[in-house]
Specification:
Layout: H1 12-15, H2 20-34, E1 43-47, H3 55-67, E2 74-78, H4 86-89, H5 99-104, E3 115-117, E4 122-125, H6 134-139, H7 141-153, E5 156-160, H8 169-174, E6 179-185, H9 190-206, E7 212-218, E8 232-235
Parallel strand pairs: 1-5, 1-6, 2-4, 2-5, 6-7
Antiparallel strand pairs: 3-4, 7-8
The structure holds adenosine-5'-triphosphate (ATP) and magnesium ion (MG).
Adenosine-5'-triphosphate is lined by residues 8, 10, 48, 51-57, 80, 83, 85, 163, 218, 220-221.
Length: 236
Amino acid sequence: MSPKKRLDPRLVSLTAAGSFAAEQYQGLRLTLERLGNGRGAQALAVTSPAAGDGKTVTAINLAGTLARGSEARVLLIDADLRRPAVGSQLRMDASARGLTDVLTDDRTTLDDVTTLLEQFNLSVVPAGTGHGAVHQMLRSARFERLLKEARERYDFIVLDTPPLLPVYDSALLAKSLDGVLMVVSANRSAESSRRRQGARHRLQQGRSAAVRLLRLLLPRILPGRLGQRSLTIHDS
Ligand SMILES: Nc1ncnc2c1ncn2[C@@H]1O[C@H](COP(=O)(O)OP(=O)(O)OP(=O)(O)O)[C@@H](O)[C@H]1O
Ligand SMILES: [Mg+2]
């Protein structure tokens, strides 16, 4: 793992722990802990209506916050098999095995594809090097087994996923999880609210009633001007 300073400065929970911007994610943590009548949300997908909304940055910041300074065991999984970015954001080796390797090869285990980033107390499964039809992989019994094992071994599991409007992957995953965090930019245009509604509708098709939907309004973070604005979380 390379020095912290080479990470994207927007990954505030890793690069600027203790800053106002990083502390914003603590509010999200409290909300997660409260979900499910206090049982908490253990496995959570991060998604958004469209590409480039800030899903990956949010997933890493959330996982980094959950893992920070505590005994918590946290697993971050890159389940955006279309445009994986967790591994590259965390400066992991591009040839590292990951989720697709477990899902396409019975001999590969969760341990084989997990890297512990010790400085952040964060375990990471990148997207990996396996090939296959994405929907089939995400629907497979292997995926369910992997998630079951992860639930037994980690306190929190955060999945980075693709945007909802172009593909159904996140809606498909949602049925196996406790919650879905929808990242929406703090942008009030008619177009963005139309996209939000479309994304929400698509998610409703996939999730069971037990899966909670949270919306996170993400202010633009300008590097060098971290921490000017608050995150807003809606539990719906
Ligand atoms: N809150 C933010 N403010 C400003 N820029 C941001 C913010 N969050 C992410 N970015 C930047 O926007 C770009 C897209 O972010 P990110 O990769 O997290 O989005 P994404 O939704 O995961 O994209 P994709 O749909 O391609 O997976 C990156 O360059 C990232 O550094
Ligand atoms: Mg992404």
